[in-house]
Amino acid sequence: MDQSKRKAFAEDGAVLIEGCLNAEQLALCRQAFDWGIENPGPNAHSLFDGSVQKSHVDNANPFAKGRLDELAAALPFGRLFADLWGSEHVWYFAEELFLKAGGNAGRSPWHQDTSYLPWAGKHFANAWISFEAVPKRNALEIVRGSHLGTRHDGSTFQNPDDPTEPLHGGDAWPRLPNIEAERRANPDAYDIVSWATRPGDVLLLHPGVLHGGGAVDADFPDRHTLVMRFFGDDAVFSPLPEHSDAGFTPAGVLFVEELASLKAGDPFRASCFRQIL
């Protein structure tokens, strides 16, 4: 691992690893993706349901857990993240599937995954694996270094007119900034970065970084993306708000029973998460 990659992930919150997966590994990932689309889990849902911007998302499908655990162990992510983080151990959390098709699905609203999951620490990362060559204009965008700043409330992802509509509500966390509106008024309002990618490239993203985008259009009508999430030694449990308008528990909505005994600051560990290193 080049030291510049470690520095970029630690300071910026994201880094692109070009050619991370070979053709055989990418094919295994695509098989897992296609199976998940054909066999959705209980957490499958649509963003902006009922609008032309609708897109499909699935998260931690329990029916796919066995095959995804095996896939995580077969891919080079254990050594990759150990090297990237300087962590002795690496665990696999779960997958997320994104399908945007037909050239209409809009950009995903800006958000932090830590608004939805009880995560804190340096050793968390999402591995974004897209199966198309993604142009820069259609790529995921991040606000550089935002994982080191404020933890915001989440977006409901259901109001196209207000992408900052609060998920939890109350005053536990600050409301999301309207980044798109602010950057239209001032293109330099945020330090935003993104990358064009080719099949086999993997974007590594800290879940605390503000990120969004990835729209499709007439020239790039379809995007299929498998996200695999990992954590290491410096990963701790950081509960969500006690009272959530969205019905979230302090442990979120994934693996709630398995995480129920953890307290704020405890190492993020549970026997349900496959250790791959």
Task: Explain how this protein is built.
InterPro entries: Phytyl_CoA_dOase-like. GO terms for molecular function: 2-oxoglutarate-dependent dioxygenase activity; iron ion binding. With 277 residues, this protein is an alpha+beta fold. The chain has helices spanning 3-12, 23-38, 65-74, 77-85, 179-185, 256-259, and strands spanning 14-17, 45-47, 55-59, 90-100, 108-111, 119-120, 124-130, 140-143, 192-194, 202-205, 211-213, 223-232, 236-237. The chain has a single domain (3-259), classed as Sandwich (Jelly Rolls), CATH 2.60.120. The protein contains six helices and 13 strands. A hairpin with a 7-residue loop joins strand 2 and strand 3. The chain starts with a helix and ends in an 18-residue tail after the last helix. 42% of the residues are buried. The model has no long low-confidence stretch (mean pLDDT 94).
Task: Quickly list its features.
6 helices, 4-stranded antiparallel sheet, 277 residues, 20% helix, Jelly Rolls
User: Which structural category do the helix and sheet elements fall into?
Assistant: alpha+beta
Sum up the overall morphology in one term: globular
Please give the alpha-carbon distance between the first and last residues.
17 Å
Reading the helices and strands in chain order gives HEHEEHHEEEEEHEEEEEH
CATH evolutionary superfamily: q2cbj1_9rhob like domain
CATH class: Mainly Beta
Which fold does the CATH topology refer to?
Jelly Rolls
| Low-confidence segments | none
**Fraction of residues in helices?**
10-25%
Number of domains: 1
Average pLDDT reading:
94
Keywords: Dioxygenase, Oxidoreductase, Plasmid
Region (Disordered): 151-173
Pfam families: PhyH
Protein name: Phytanoyl-CoA dioxygenase
